[in-house]
Amino acid sequence: MNTRELVTEATLARLNVLRMIRAGKSGHLGGAFSCIDIVTALYFAVLRVEPSDPADPDRDRFLLSAGHKALSQYAVLARRGFFPEEWLDTYGSVSTKLPGHPDMHKLPGVEANTGALGHGLAIAAGMALGLRAAGNGGRVFTILGDGELPEGSNWEGASIASHHKLGNLVAFIDVNDLQISGRTADVMNMEPIADKFRAFGWRTTTIDGNDIDSILGSVRYASSDPSAPTAVVARTTKAKGISFLEGTLASHYWKPSADELRAAESELRAASGLLVGKE
Which residues form a coiled coil (predicted)? Predict the structure, then answer.
């Protein structure tokens, strides 16, 4: 896919998130929208995966460490063909395969149960080490949120990845500057993030995490040196794509009115060049 096509896919994925929120009446929209460009770029232009064979041993692995952003992964997995898009309409129901946090036992394409914040990087490092030990050329990608960085297990995982020179591991840090309790700088300031990962022995780069070309460029950078893991500090906007929610704490967990949901859908459809749907 070219850049324009990937941008369109990201918009369609955002519409899928709104489809789930319509079904479930609420959801973690802010973080899902801040990282969804990364998730889209990975699944449609980077990851070696096959929706018809999600357990292919030679696949690349993707872990969403910040599991409350699961709506982004569900939206893209559906677009990529891992499961029927009709399943999105079950979000929020008792029998759904799309729980609030990803569950590897319920949905194809999910590699691990995540959302106990701070665990994803360590799991990803273990996967990367295991793949290398098995002589498997698969790569592991993970997305962390800036709000989960204070968890100490992140830095144990970072140490392991550096010590074992896991060049097959790439961690995107979704820095949208907000978490459930407020601004990350006020709750627990972890800046300078890039310098911290660099001090742990990681190669680092900082990008606009809502720009497709920047995201793809960071993957090329990560591939250029297999001797160390790569941390991509992705500066993003919470709720990116919905003008009246962007950069707001209210978007972290959104319970929209019918009018707000229609306005959000209309804005995204207009942005993607689609006809505004009628209820």
Answer: none
